[in-house]
Amino acid sequence: MLTFGTDGVRGKFGTELTESYAADLAVVAAQVLQCKTVVIGRDTRESGVLLETAIANALVKEGIETQLMGVAPTPAIAFSAMRRNVVAIAITASHNLYQDNGIKIFGAGGRKLSDSEQEEIEKQLLERIRKSTSGAIGASSDLAKTVKPELVKEYCDWLSQIVDTTDFSKLHVVLDCANGAYSNVAPEVFTKLGATVTTINATPDGRNINEQCGATHPAMLCSVVKSVGAHFGIAFDGDGDRLIAVDETGEIVDGDHLIAISATEMKRRGTLRNNKVAVTVMTNIGFHQAMKKAEIEVVTTPVGDRSVLAALEENSLVLGGEQSGHIIYRDLATTGDGLLAALMLSAIVAGANKTLGEIASAAMTSFPQVLINLRVSKRVENIEKLFESEIAVAEKSLQANGRVLVRASGTEPMVRVMVEASQQATAESVAATLAQAITTRLG
Known about the structure:
Layout: E1 9-12, H1 19-32, E2 37-42, H2 48-61, E3 65-71, H3 74-84, E4 87-91, E5 100-107, E6 111-112, H4 115-131, H5 150-162, E7 172-176, H6 185-192, E8 196-200, H7 219-228, E9 232-236, E10 243-246, E11 252-253, H8 255-269, E12 276-280, H9 285-293, E13 297-301, H10 305-315, E14 319-321, E15 327-329, H11 338-351, H12 356-363, E16 369-375, H13 383-386, H14 388-398, E17 402-408, E18 414-421, H15 424-442
Helix pairs in contact: 1-2, 1-4, 3-5, 5-6, 8-11, 8-12, 14-15
C-alpha cells in the first residue's frame, strides 16, 4: 500500500496507484477530516481524469459534496480550499513524468495535513482495503457537468490583485509551463497585468508533462530567454507549486536566490515578520552567509514544504521555501505557489533599476554544489546512520569549507547525495566517492 511521503502519495498509475486505491484514500481522508465538501483538481496527466472520476464517485456515494476544478494548479486548489474553508484533493505527481500520478490532500482551509492526521488516514485506509469496502468506480457522465472553471478564474483574479499596483508593461517574460497545469493560467495572468509574454511548453497532451521542460529541465528556457531578448524567464513544474527563474543572460536563478531576493526586499519594506526566514537543510551555505550579512535570522528545517510550513507557523513567519523552488508567502497562501512567487519576483524587477542577474548576484553567492540522485532497489530509512562512517570521512576532508548531506527521498526509492565545497572539483570528488559507496551497498 502506498503511504504518505514528503508531499502526499505518489506512484506508477495502474500498478502502485490504482483507481480503487484513490477512491478508498479519498473516502477515508474525508472521514478522518470530518468534511462535508471536497474540492478536486488535477494536473494534465492522462490518468488524471480516471482518478478524478474514481475519487468523485466514491465521495458522492458517501454523501460528500464534490466540486471539480478540472485541470488546475495545485496552488489554485489549495486557494479554493482556503477561501471556502473546505478539504481539497490535488491529483498530481508534481515534477514526475506522466507515468506517475499522486494525491495531495489539503485539510479544511487549504492547510497541509499534520503527521497525526496522515497516520490516522493510513491506519484506517489499511483497514478499509483489508475489508474491501470500496464500491464501483466506473465513469459518470454527470461529472463533467459539475466542473467549475470559475474556481480557477477566482484564483487568477486574486493573484492579479496582489500586484495590480505594479507596472508590468515594460517587462518581457518567457514562461515555461512544463505542459502542465499552468499552461493556460500563467500566460493569462501575466498578459492581463500588461507584460509581454513568450510562452513555451504550454500544449499538454496528457503525456508530455515535465518532459524535458519546466523547472526540472530549464535548458530550453535559458535558450529562449536569450534568443528573444527577454528580461527573464520563469519555469514551473507540472502542478505549479514550484518555479525556477532564468536571468537575462540565460543563467539559472534557483530557489535559494529567489528566497534571498524576497527576504532582503521584505526586510527593506519592513514586512519580514520577526526578521526571520525558513529554509531546508538543502539550502546553500551561500544563502546562510548572505542572510547573516543582511542581519536576517534563518530557521532550518528538514526537506519538504510541510516542514517549512510548520516552521513558519511555529515561529510566526511569512517567508520560507526550498532550493528546488517551492516558495511560501504564508501571509498570502497555505502552500508553495509558483505563479505567486513569479509575480512577486516580477514586481521586484519591475520596480528596480537593475536586471534580474544583478539583483540575484547582489542577494547571495552560491558555493559550488553537487547533487547526485541514486536510484536504489527499495526505499531506505536511516540512511545517515547506515553510512555514518563514510559521511564522517567526507566531512573531515572538507573541514569548515563545505558540508555533506545524504538523505533518502520521501516519495521514491532514491538516495540523494549533496556536497558543497569552496571548489567545484572538490565537491565533485567527495560526492562521487560517497555515491560509489552507496551504490555498492544498495544498488
